[in-house]
Amino acid sequence: MTDQYTFQDPTKQFPKAGPEYEQQQEGPGLQQDMAPKPDSGETSYVGKGRLTGRKAVVTGADSGIGRAAAIAYAREGADVVLSYMPEEEPDAQEVVKLIEAEGRKAVAVPGDVKDEQYCVNLIETAVKELGGLDILAIVAGKQQFVESIDELTTEQFDETFKTNVYAMFWLCKAAIKHMPPGGSIINTSSIQAYKPAPILLDYATTKAAINTFSKALAQQVAEKGIRVNVVAPGPVWTPLQVAGGQPPEKLPSFGEQTPLGRPGQPVEMAPAYVFLASQESSYVSGETLNANGGMPTP
Ligand code: NAD
Ligand code: MG
Q1: How much is the pTM?
Q2: Residue of 25, 30, 59, 65 to test ligand 1 pocket, by largest number of atoms within 8 Å of CB
Q3: Of 34, 59, 99, 118, which has the maximum CB count within 10 A?
Q4: Residue among 112, 123, 189, 238 whose CB has most ligand 1 atoms within 8 A, to mutate
Q5: Nearest ligand 1 atom, CA 243
């Protein structure tokens, strides 16, 4: 187990997928029940005080990439409000313990981001419990593959847009009212925004919308001293992928198509979320940081 500072070959830093990656869970899925388990930095991410005293909301904070961002934020010195679905309580409680072990405050606020009132309450809770809010990392997302447009229901199309696009709108709107100059919003797109898989019609479309929304909003709130950026992951080993994100038979070769030849681990996304939240990125706004194993993007 190495930290994010150890010099090494990125093609070998984490394993390729294999037959043991073929597995399936009911959505939203639990990281606890995956084997092999994703690495969200639980034992490896080392903080350097880059977010000392900061106040963060992270959605999808129970598992995968959001969990990695939440752990990293706490290790960098931030207090964190965690959003996740009630069914994900066992994963979320592990994250709460890890954050508290850093001496940081963790506030768990389970709920459904498809509900506007929950989104508003989440932000209001953060302001009250943390005494303000200066980082909003929106990592929650819905991805459910469907082979054909004939089988893609209006219900799913609506849920994917509500989770990935509307929630982003509601959360940003609620948060900007409270953010001081220096505040940072980080949204989560995907390689799917530029290279859409045919079986991810609804999902890929939302990810392009997230990039465009963020570029527009970044210009609008720049004068307030608030920055808006995006992280766009490639194939990362998380519950999303084993709970309907991919056909299970595709998982043994998950990530093989990337130039680096392997899936990413959630912990490899964490430094992007930290950089974009911290003052180190003071002159970066409206940008999408691709962390996708080397696949070219527009
Ligand atoms: P994940 O399953 O660990 O995280 C997704 C989280 O979204 C869940 O844990 C859940 O808490 C949250 N969520 C979903 N629907 C919700 C709802 N209605 N209300 C509240 N919370 C809800 O998987 P992940 O891969 O870490 O996904 C995180 C983000 O990364 C997503 O936006 C996803 O689109 C994006 N992404 C993932 C990959 C990948 O390969 N894993 C690639 C590109 C982008
Ligand atoms: Mg989860």
Answers
A1: 0.99
A2: 65
A3: 59
A4: 238
A5: 2
What is the pLDDT at residue 69?
Answer: 99
Cα distances from 92 to residues 2, 85, 117, 226, in angstroms, run 24, 9, 21, 29
CATH topology of domain 47-291: Rossmann fold (3.40.50)
Distance between CA atoms of residues 278 and 243, nearest Å: 32
pLDDT tens per residue, range 183-223: 999 999 999 999 999 999 999 999 999 999 999 999 999 99
**Cα–ligand 1 centroid distance for 229 (angstroms):** 17
Catalytic residues: 203
Each domain of the chain, given as residue ranges in start order, spans: 47-291
